[in-house]
Amino acid sequence: MRFKLREILVIILLAVAIFLLLQSTVQSFKVEGFSMEPSFHNGQYLAVNKAVYWFGDPQRGEVIVFRSLENPDRDLIKRVIALPGETVEIKEGRVYIDGAPLDEPYIIEEPDYTYPSRQVPPDFYFVLGDNRNSSSDSHVWGMLPREYIIGKAWFCYWPLSEWQLVPTYPFEQ
């Protein structure tokens, strides 16, 4: 009897440890809206890697999930465009980083707005939705503080027909 009780306790403790490990490293996220089309669609579910930024910083081209600046109870998804210390500008339908145009094969259409040249402060990021003209993002509400970032979009697991790793676009400056 004593052996079975100990075995049950070990199993319960192991299950709790696994649960806590998963809760602290992975989060589920449901895409709401159309700001990330064509990359992500309304209703898709993504797994978010919360541990990846414990050891490094977000990089340009990565898709991140973060707490909304306007409503911290709501999570949003956008793509990292400019990093701390870089200068970002949007003009004539193009995004410029430190004066160089950014190649963006993932956008649905060029932005129909301008954004004046601004330097990204330390511990902040400039993020945009892939559907540039239908996205509330850094061009509307400003730079994203690092502490609001939850993690990196890792893979889409629903619907099953769209099961895939989330691509990161490598950029050369």
Please provide a written account of the structure:
The structure is a single chain. Strands 1, 2, 3, 4, 9, 10, 11 and 12 form an eight-stranded antiparallel β-sheet that branches. By secondary structure, the chain is an alpha+beta fold. The protein starts with a helix and ends in an 8-residue tail after the last strand. The protein has helices at residues 2-25, 138-141, and strands spanning 26-30, 45-49, 63-67, 75-82, 87-91, 94-97, 100-101, 115-119, 124-128, 144-145, 149-158, 164-165. Helix content is 16%, strand content 34%.
Provide a compact summary of the structure.
With 173 residues, the protein is α+β, with helices and mostly antiparallel strands.
What does the main sheet amount to?
8 strands, antiparallel
The total beta strand count reads 12
Q: CATH fold name, please?
A: Umud Fragment, subunit A
Q: How many independent structural domains?
A: 1
Low-confidence stretches: none
| β-strand amount | 25-35%
End-to-end separation in angstroms reads 67 Å
Treating each run of at least 4 consecutive H or I residues as one helix, how many helices?
A: 2
The CATH top-level class label: Mainly Beta
In CATH, the architecture is: Ribbon
Structural class: alpha+beta
Molecular shape: elongated
What is the fourth-level CATH superfamily? Umud Fragment, subunit A
Q: What is the mean pLDDT? A: 86
Radius of gyration: 19 Å
Question: Portion of residues in helices?
Answer: 10-25%
User: Order of SSEs, N→C?
Assistant: HEEEEEEEEEHEEE
